[in-house]
Amino acid sequence: MNKNQPWNVLRFRGTGSWNSITFKSNTAVIDNGVSPYWPHSVIFTTAAAHGLVAGSAITLKGSTYYDKTYKILSVPTTTTMIVESVYIAETLTTTDTFKLTLAPKQAFEFGGFRLHLNAASATSENLTINVDAGAGDDIYDTNLYTKNMNTIQNIEWNLKDAPMSFDKNDELDFAWGNSNSKTYGLEVFWRRI
């Protein structure tokens, strides 16, 4: 482990719920081709407005070929997003979901997070960070952090001096209902071990 290694920052931005965003039932991934501005890209279609914006990260879980973290290149409509990816034909279902997840696919340290809302939340809803343990048994899944967001506008949870270590198959899921549709900017700090 190199303590001098810089921290990576994974950024999530939007106005919607952080809880699972489901796909429109039986909707094929669309090949968006190559453009002068983007490398090869695909279009995903969600069941309802996703509340995400271009530049945000998002992690797909439950698919056959597309499970990973993406940077959103563009949001043509409230239920579509264009991400950088090579196209492989697949039809997604409502069991395939997008989440705000840190999933580096390598052993990593979690250094905390920073959150800013455009205005304080006015609803009593918990923001949580849960470990989806890669050990394959739910007995290892655990809650790392819980915060009632009522009246909260800014949070910083700094663990950089004493980071938490995780296995390459572990994932951290961030969830919050955001029923007030606050505009958020979430920065998650991590580095490989």
What's the topology here?
Elements: E1 8-14, E2 21-22, E3 27-28, E4 30-33, E5 41-45, E6 57-61, E7 69-74, E8 80-84, E9 91-92, E10 97-102, E11 108-117, E12 126-132, E13 142-148, E14 154-158, E15 164-166, E16 171-175, E17 184-192
Antiparallel strand pairs: 1-17, 2-10, 3-9, 4-5, 5-8, 6-7, 6-10, 7-8, 10-16, 11-14, 11-15, 11-17, 12-13, 12-16
Structure overview:
- The protein is mainly β and about 190 residues long.
- The protein has two domains: about 20-100, Elongation Factor Tu (Ef-tu), domain 3; about 100-190, Jelly Rolls.
- Helices cover about 0% and strands about 45% of the residues.
- It is built from no helices and 17 strands.
- The mean pLDDT is about 90.
Largest sheet: 10 strands, antiparallel
* Total of domains: 2
Report the top-level CATH class of the largest domain.
Mainly Beta
**Over all CA atoms, what is the radius of gyration?**
17 Å
TL;DR of this structure?
The chain is an all-beta fold and about 190 residues long. The chain has two domains: about 80 residues, Elongation Factor Tu (Ef-tu), domain 3 (Beta Barrel), CATH 2.40.30; about 90 residues, Sandwich (Jelly Rolls). Strands 2, 4, 5, 6, 7, 8, 10, 12, 13 and 16 form a ten-stranded antiparallel beta sheet that branches.
